[in-house]
Design goal:
This protein is an alpha+beta fold and 161 residues long. It contains 4 helices and 6 strands; from the N terminus they run H-H-E-E-E-E-H-E-H-E.
């Protein structure tokens, strides 16, 4: 016990950083976080301004076993050069079909065309982000009828022999 007290007295800032980091790690599924920080398998609520076509910088993380709007299935990098112009809507659609649809099928275990209960959404770079070299596209799944999901959409692993 004396060691802990001595550590806190000697390095209070370090101990505070460690405690805050541990709390953030434990409660990550309940915190608001940057869209850029989403990882495959993260579940989240889609902000209201998403439907209005607004720019999005943060989402509310949720545990996948609790009510949530969407789940990240893939993060893919667009191969365009840093100096390339922003792709057209048609080019983005092709890229998503080539990259996100196979990831959808792999992640959910369902054919994209046959999975009528789910739709795919996409977070893509802003114009300014693209100009700064951001090429990250985040593919996610949400309920086709916009109902809340209450479990992960990830397919259960196949049973072994």
């Amino acid at each position: 016990m004396g060691f802990v007290v001595a550590l806190v007295q000697r390095f209070p800032i370090l101990v505070l950083i460690l405690v805050v980091g541990a709390v953030a790690f434990v409660f990550r599924d309940h915190l608001t976080g940057a869209v850029d920080d989403l990882r495959v398998g993260d579940c989240f609520d889609r902000p209201a301004n998403l439907a209005a076509g607004g720019e999005l910088s943060e989402v509310q993380h949720r545990p996948c076993a609790e009510s949530h709007d969407a789940e990240v299935i893939a993060i893919v990098m667009h191969p365009a050069a840093r100096t390339a112009a922003y792709p057209s809507d048609a080019a983005v659609s092709r890229f998503v079909a080539e990259q996100c649809v196979p990831e959808f099928e792999s992640y959910t275990g369902s054919s994209y065309e046959a999975a009528l209960q789910w739709e795919m959404g996409l977070f893509l770079p802003t114009d300014d982000g693209w100009a700064d070299g951001d090429r990250e596209f985040t593919c996610y799944v949400h309920s086709a009828d916009r109902a809340k999901l209450v479990r992960s959409v990830r397919a259960a692993p196949a049973a072994g022999p």
